[in-house]
UniProtKB/TrEMBL annotation:
Residues 396-658, 1052-1293 form the ABC transporter domain. It comes from Gracilariopsis chorda. Pfam families: ABC_membrane (PF00664), ABC_tran (PF00005). This is Probable ATP-dependent transporter ycf16. Belongs to the ABC transporter superfamily. ABCB family. Multidrug resistance exporter (TC 3.A.1.201) subfamily. Residues 1-19 have a biased composition (Polar residues). Keywords: ATP-binding, Glycoprotein, Membrane, Nucleotide-binding, Repeat, Translocase, Transmembrane, Transmembrane helix, Transport.
Amino acid sequence: MADEVNGTSTPSEPNTSSGENRKRSFFSRFKKGDKAKAAAQKEQKHPPVKFVQLFRHATRGEKVYMAIACISAIIHGSLMPVFTILFGGIIDEFQDASSNPASSDILEQVTEQVGSVAKWFLVLGGVAFVTSLIQVRFQMVVAQGISARLRHMYFESLLSQDFTWYGQEDGGELTARVAGDVNLIQGGIGDKVTSAVQFFSMFVVGVIIAFVYGPLLTLVILSIAPLMIAGGAVFAKIAADSSGEGAGAYGSAGGVASEVISLIRVVTAYNGQETEARRYEVELQKAFKANVKKSIYAGLGFGFTMFIIFCAYAIAFTFGANRVRSGAMSTGDILTTFFSVFIACFSIGQSAPSFQAFAVAQGAAPRVYEIIDRESEINPLNEDDGEVIPDFKGNVSFKNVNFNYKNRISDDLETEEDRRYVLENFNLSIPTGTSHALVGASGCGKSTTVRLIERFYDVSDGAVKFDDYDVRALNVKWLRSQIGYVGQMPTLFARSIRDNIALGASLEPVGDEATGRKVLSRREVTDEEIVEAAKKANAHDFIMKLPERYDTMLGERGALLSGGQKQRVCIARALVRNPKILILDEATAALDAQSERIVQKALEAASAGRTTITIAHRLSTVKNADIISVIDKGVIVESGTHKDLLSIEGGAYRTLIEHQNLEAQKAKEVKEKVGEGEPQADAMIAKATSTSVSKSIRRTGAEEEDELPEEAAVDKGILLRAFKVNRNEWFFILMGIVGATLNGASFPAMAIIFAEVINEILVDNSKGAISKWALLYVAIGGAAFLGNFLQHASLGYSGEQMTLKLRRTAFRAILKQDMGFFDMKKNSLGALTTRLATEATAVKGLTGDVLGSIAFGVSTILTGFLIAYISCWRVALVVTTVFPLSAISQGLQLKMMTGFDADSETRYAAAGTVASEAVDNFETVTSIGVQDVFLNTYKEEVNKTIKNGRRTALVAGIAFGLSEFIAQALWAVSFWIGSIFVRNRQCEFVDLMKAITGLLFGGMMLGNLSSTMPDWGKAKIAATRIFRLLDRESSIDPTVDVDFKEKIEGNAEMKKVEFEYPSRPNVGVLRGLSVEVKKGQTLALVGASGCGKSTVVGLLERFYDARSGSVTIDGSNITEYDVKWVRKHMGVVAQEPDLFNRSVRDNIAYGLDHVDGTPVTDEMIIAAAKAANAHSFISELEEGYDTVVGARGTRLSGGQRQRVAIARALVREPKILLLDEATSALDAVSERVVQQALDRAGKGRTTVAIAHRLSTVKDADAIAVVARGKIVEMGRHEQLLRIENGEYANLVKNQLSGGTRRAERKRLLAACGAYE
């Protein structure tokens, strides 16, 4: 072992010198490259589906709805080109008036004709209202129906898949598809379909009308269109690519934030805040550069398009004027042709979002359809396949079974050449009603046996049988309903405790009224049964102490409960089922000795009359089993009773016993002394002095929360503060405002030229005048190009700078918070990542973006009104009254282009949460067979969204219809009123055109603005939340540099410490606790679950500060030290070891100092891994130390994760080592080796160890028994045993009780905790 610590290899070990390790690392990069290529090839295997395939799951009724919607869209699309005919007719009527302006009769006739045409505008508006409503409403209903069906089918298929398939997939990616890909499909089959049909109809009818009224002019205008389309497409492509890069980088940043926040205790314990902040900022910088690039090209694209449009105006009117001079066309024909062509061309541009949505949906569909279409080899949802045993007894047997995992990391197993199968020629028989224990080292095949019984996998050869039925012939859903399962890693769901226990309800065959056949239905569990199951699992007492008792809502994975509490609830969930077969995979691993004894008795009682299969490392929990089988390398090497196996000299079971039987003779001598009645006074025992607990009545957290004054949604001065964040970008904001002003004035200014050109053609039609106005069109186009570029590029840059700053500072603000902040419900992982992802981005809507929008709006309004009122104030006054309606109309039309269903992802968030929880905990969901529960919950959430969506569809249809009607009505009113003023000689025609077009063009541009302007209200709320986060002062801030950095020796003491968790201020945890440990000593904390042991470790780490009393390091209050300095000298190993989704090397290196730049060598990593007994299994992984361990280390077993976590703690060579059940997930052999390593690592350093297995702490210099938040006993192992009826002695008795014979009892008692 000395060689292992020094990092040298022994002959028996594989050569893992640093050089070879680096070599592996080098070649692993090529492997990673191969994986990337494989991923790319995988994408190529999913070519986009045909468009019609997007509707493959539509019902007949939905297809009829879609046909009606498309017909309405065709009619709707033809209306706008028809409008140009009416518009041209009105101009021709005014041409007659212009030819003889002195004739009152002609003016009267013109007024009548204009009024008649205006009525047709209203007719068009009415038709547009009806067709718009139908096309939007019907198609949205169709899309929502198909989307809901896809979501349900996709989720159902996910839950029906087998474990082999899941081993190849990324669970997070699978749930992202249901949240992301199905939304993309919905976006491609919703109102975008009818929008595309409408715009196609508009294009066809527009081109036809243009060629009818002016074929040559049409060809001239169309010759320019390709340039506009090509230029716009190029810029759009570059901007879209940049947008994709930015989204990908933000996604990566979000992944970093999610992982870091979910592992915040590890990050905090190892001072990783700065490292993680920099890692996050690297991704933010990538997103910043990509999005700035997008803004620049967006500005160029918009500017280029506007310039070409204005140039097209110039060319069209110049050519058209020549045609009028030649008598080939009238002025009205010019306008009809011109606007018909432009409507046709614009319809192509307006349809681009639709076709883009189609392409995205066609690309997303194959990934979704692949899952939906996949037939699972082992389908737990299929009620038709397989038999149901009529009178199932519970016999289980394995006959000559060979098995190996198809997709797995080679962990504690030999290479494939050494051993082909995980289970090889495996035979086992478990008769009805007997209890059978499986024991052996980690990786020997115990858990595999259980997985085959539950039919997670099928055997390669041989058979697994239930009552002589091959499990492959049985119905999977029924099979699993006969099994109650409690796993080593207890998993609960984000529901109440009552609902979590009720998930264990059994399935019963009942008659289906619809089909008349028998189906399996979940039995309703009564409250009495839930309470009874909780009592059997020793969970009732702690549940009743919770504020809401059985209705207490648990967090993600049951995060609000301790490990032991979670395991007891899981046991209750298994017992409430009353199963034929009970499987216990380390079912009491997380319990303290007393709870384990009580629960073990309950489990043994529950096992009576049913087949029980137990996997255990604590051999005391299986010694009463009817049969114990020892598995080694996939083969049963011994079977028999506890007594029989102990009698085999040198046997495998006896060897395991001896590994757990630590210093038996020494403990036996201590016991004999106690039996001789040695005076209790001789024992140097530190009895804790009872401290009075405050009797003041504390209000419940809920009451306190209710009494807190509600915070305002928006803080005062938020706008000014947002500008201060962006003040360094003032020049870019100023340039953006200038650009927006130019951009906003361009269209109203164009109204002057438009009216003058029309008037010139009507009156004189001189070439010189027409050329002059054409050049002014080009000049305005140049101004529009410059304005668009400056607005989008400059404000885009300033906005991205603000987003970068806020995301960066907000993430750092989160990282510096104390643990109490993360314990609050409102600061859940989802809430914090959302705050970073969406709210930080939304804040830029308060500064540059909004200033640009305001400048654009003010410029548009002022220019338009100025032109209108100077030209003809009477017409301007009338049009002003309806001006807001023009802006609203245009805004709603642009909303149609982006899609009324664009926020579907937000609305489906609740359903997505259900899907994520089920897939993330797939093993537990499958083990207890609750797929139907999650499917029903998911369906309910989707149906809620569908009901709301149908209302949204109706409102959207009405709103869009109104916008179309308003647009037509505005032109009707404007021209009709204007004709009256012209008739009364109160306004000239040219001035009428200026007034109408100036205001209506301005209104259209404001409508564009309304669709793109940031949501002011949301931006203010987002800014308030972000700034409140930035302002929150952490009570324990690691970013504050404190000068007090005295050398730490390792002395630690707590004096009369009282503490309550901030999230549960009404529940006292520590009540006057006092304890001390000297430099180099080992202090063990023992006691029941929930007594406050882990809280002591949390206070030493300074995750929290005590409410009263003191915590001191080397005699100085811990609050006086620099918090990073204190944590730098501590190493922590928690009960539930969490690793980062990085390589094994990176996870171990995380324990090293993150600040001083100490070089990380392979020798340091390997030495720590050897000390933690992790080196051998790491070397056998596919890529050794470069193997990525998966999210939270899920690609490793529980024991492997714990060993890597121990290596992470040891690599930093801490002065104080904090071990919270550091060996709880290890088998006896690994525990002994690692415990020796920990004991060796503890030499010369202070160690505080929490343990339920008393054998791991009996050599401690002092053992402190924690009960009711105080130290009730303290002393050495031998001393504490002498106290008659003492707390520690009772803990020992609880772990030693249950021996069947006196000699065996003596052996167990001598071990003093060896058989926990």
